[in-house]
Amino acid sequence: MRNPSVRQIKALHNLSKGMSKRQALFQAGYSVSSSNQAIRVFNKKSMQNLLEKYQGLFEEAGITPEFVVNKFSDWFNSENEEIQLKAYDRYEKIMGIVDKENSKQEGFKRELSITEFVMGNNKDT
After folding, report:
1. How many angstroms separate the CA atoms of 27 and 78, rounded?
2. Residue % of the chain over a pLDDT of 70
């Protein structure tokens, strides 16, 4: 197995920071064209070998999926609200719920107040 390229290592590092695959590639120095083909890039044999290598190293260090889930549970159940909010922000990024850098919502007109949300948007009241 040949050594991973600097861009491959940077891309994996960017993924670990919560970036999407596309963002991770672009920030690592891949072209826009390659970044838009993120699935193809990450499915290449060289990238798969690198991912497997690092997955093995994480597991040897005790960082398993169960460990990560338990850590998130600790953060979500923390008495410190700031820790809870940061944990949720990280969870959103990992799960792809919100892409904060590209969160321009098409068709978004205005925010609803809590009253409007609960009671409905009734213009007669």
Report:
1. 33
2. 74
